[in-house]
Amino acid sequence: MINPSVEREIVDNLSDLMIDSSKVAYVSDYHNLSHAMLILTAAKYSIIPVLNKESQLVGLLNLAVIVKAITELDGINPEKLEEMKVAEVMLDLPLQVTLEDSFEKVFHALVDQNFLGVTDRQGKFIGIITRRNLLKRLNQYFHNLA
Ligand code: AMP
User: Fold this and answer.
1) In the chain, N or C terminus with fewer CB closer than 10 Å?
2) Is the model's pTM score more than 0.85?
């Protein structure tokens, strides 16, 4: 267990590590794959969150799952880009956290995931915590140690 006083010194509030949802590129589960592909390409991230109409985080999307979904035995079927919805192909959601969770939980989860979705108490998506932001904060903490 991380000593609670050390935890507080590293980060007093998890919101300090969070990228606000307004700055997060995401796709909606009801978008078709063609639209999702445009968003993914413009976002320049390999994998981004999927939200539903209620702004809940429901999955993740990357280009690989889109390509797999439109690939048939005899080649790529571009019509499927228009026909299929993100909800049909998205990847399962890994662990999400709330701002009330412990730093330790976030720290452990970011060993395996390169970002975590953050939700409020009602399950609404409010942002992400990335491995980069955590490492930047740890770097700052270590440099400030007397
Ligand atoms: P980083 O630790 O900054 O490399 O980010 C890790 C991952 O988090 C990226 O590969 C993306 O999948 C996701 N990510 C980071 N920033 C954003 C953002 N603004 N919008 C959507 N996804 C993001």
Assistant:
1) C
2) yes
Q: Is 39 in the pocket of ligand 1 (CB under 6 A)?
A: no
Which atom of ligand 1 has the smallest separation from the CA of 130? 2
- CB of residue 135 inside a 6 A radius of ligand 1: no
Nearest ligand 1 atom, CA 47: 12
Q: Model confidence over 98-127: pLDDT tens digits?
A: 999 999 999 999 999 999 999 999 999 999
| Residue matched to tokens 């399962």 | 92
For the purposes of burial, counting CB atoms within 10 Å of the CB of 32, is it exposed (0-12), middle (13-18) or buried (19 or more)?
A: middle
User: Would the CB of 85 count as within 6 Å of ligand 1?
Assistant: no
